[in-house]
Amino acid sequence: QVQLVESGGGLVQSGGSLTLSCIASGFSFSRYAMRWYRQAPGKEREFLAFISTAGGTTTYADSVKGRFTISRDNAKNTVYLQMNSLKPEDTAVYYCNWPTAGYWGQGTQVTVSS
Predict the structure, then answer these.
(1) Over the stretch 7-48, which tens digit does the pLDDT of each residue have?
(2) What number of H helices and E strands is found in the chain?
(3) What is the mean pLDDT of the chain?
């Protein structure tokens, strides 16, 4: 069955960095684009970043452009989100998403302290 498993979240100080990973299984990962989202308490889920099948095309939400980088390793069935210059408002649960079929991971918590 399809699984998306995120990891790499945690507690970090403002200005710090984290790298999230999402390992995919149960489908032909290299054939599909992937996305990252986040959801803060009391807010709607927010799109963050998109990456095409081979990684040649990426797009970002304005809120993270220039600070976050999405990448993928198709040999490892993994999509990453490198997050730099983190701010307290980046605190949220972060999810990876296979948009073609509508699958989501369980999420990983990122907390940024001021």
Answers:
(1) 999 999 999 999 999 999 999 999 999 999 999 999 999 999
(2) 0, 11
(3) 97
Q: Calculate the dihedral angle through the C-alpha atoms of 63, 9, 56, 35, rounding to the nearest 10 degrees.
A: -70
Judge contact between 109 and 11, C-beta under 8 A: no
Greatest CA separation for the chain: 40
Residue 99 tokens, joined: 């948009």
SS (H, E, C) 76-109: HCEEEEEECCCCHHHCEEEEEEECCCCEECCCEE
Amino acid present at 47: F
| Calpha distance 79→39 (Å, rounded) | 18
Residue type present at position 89: E
On whether the CB atoms of residues 92 and 38 are closer than 8 A, the answer is yes
Can you read off the two tokens belonging to residue 24?
A: 């995919």
Structure tokens at 75: 């040999």
Encode burial over 20-37: b for 16+ CB neighbours within 10 A, e otherwise: bbbbbeebebeeebbbbb
